[in-house]
Write a sequence for this structure.
């Protein structure tokens, strides 16, 4: 499932960040644009050489590579901007909280708002370690002295338990410093580089998407504490796409055979339709289609809702399994 298209890669309607945030985002976009131009120029020169030598198949391959590179750069630009905005949204929620607000029970069982933000700080530090080639070292430091755990969720609980106790403002300062460092690291990284993460090796843009997804999910866990619903912006496009692209891994992790072709047709927050589907499916292939609200899909993939309680419907040979196994793996 390595080829996809959708009706659009949407822009976020939220006003642009200001001040230092705008400067950070500007530097990030400049660096991404510079890397994209460097790659495009290299492929352009290779295409000219292929044309000169009469290598028609190579020319066609390079044309496809140029198109994929252009789409990838556009997606990276949008993705990292959305991540920066999601960070700002959570910061705006946290800043006015008093001690009672930080101690309030979140949507995560047994965790306060402070615990949720501490977890985000820890996992962002892991992502920074991933970009720097030292993720194992960071995880070892975060879990130092803790007993071995059976799975990722248990490991996250142990790390939060080990470092719980700082004041809310201290936890927020740690989280904000980490996410700012992570944004800078993502901006400087080669989009084609593969890095180590909890679910195995993945590309830098996919790592950024997992961090956007987890930040959005946990922002909802925090707002739940105060009776507020999760936000619905076009950032969900990236989260839904992540859930769609990682379906083969979800099936593999569950010990199930890989699914056939799967299509997502989702209603966006703005009322448009987002379509995620393979563009190389044989005409006679029997596929599965999932339809419904993008918010519902992201909530189910983030394990914050059961598909049966949402607008989601699925038809096709893998319908039940897709709704059961879809995840963001954030």
């Amino acid at each position: 499932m390595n080829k996809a298209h959708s009706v659009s890669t949407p822009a976020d309607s939220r006003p642009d960040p200001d001040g230092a945030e705008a400067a950070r985002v500007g530097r990030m976009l400049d660096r991404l644009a510079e890397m994209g131009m460097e790659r495009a120029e290299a492929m352009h020169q290779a295409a000219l050489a292929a044309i000169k030598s009469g290598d028609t198949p190579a020319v066609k391959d390079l044309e496809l590579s140029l198109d994929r590179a252009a789409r990838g750069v556009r997606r990276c630009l949008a993705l990292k901007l959305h991540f920066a905005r999601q960070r700002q949204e959570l910061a705006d929620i946290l800043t006015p909280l008093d001690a009672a607000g930080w101690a309030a029970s979140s949507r995560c069982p047994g965790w306060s708002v402070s615990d949720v933000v501490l977890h985000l700080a820890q996992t962002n530090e892991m992502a920074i370690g991933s970009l720097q080639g030292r993720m194992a070292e960071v995880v070892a430091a975060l879990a130092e002295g803790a007993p071995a755990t059976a799975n990722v969720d248990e490991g996250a609980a142990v790390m939060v338990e080990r470092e719980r106790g700082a004041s809310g403002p201290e936890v927020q300062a740690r989280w904000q410093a980490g996410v700012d460092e992570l944004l800078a690291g993502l901006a400087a990284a080669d989009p084609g580089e593969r890095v180590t993460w909890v679910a195995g090796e993945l590309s830098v843009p996919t790592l950024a998407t997992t961090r956007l997804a987890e930040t959005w999910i946990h922002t909802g866990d925090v707002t739940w504490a105060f009776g507020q619903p999760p936000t619905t912006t076009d950032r969900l496009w990236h989260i839904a796409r992540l859930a769609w692209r990682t379906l083969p891994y979800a099936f593999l992790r569950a010990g199930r055979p890989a699914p056939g072709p799967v299509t997502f047709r989702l209603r966006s927050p703005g009322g448009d339709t987002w379509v995620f589907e393979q563009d190389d499916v044989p005409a006679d292939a029997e596929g599965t289609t999932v339809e419904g609200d993008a918010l519902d899909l992201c909530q189910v993939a983030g394990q914050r809702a059961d598909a049966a309680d949402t607008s989601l419907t699925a038809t096709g040979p893998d319908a039940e399994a897709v709704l059961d196994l879809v995840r963001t793996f954030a």
User: Anything to note?
Assistant: Residues 11-18 have pLDDT under 50 and may be disordered. The first strand starts at residue 194 and ends at 197.
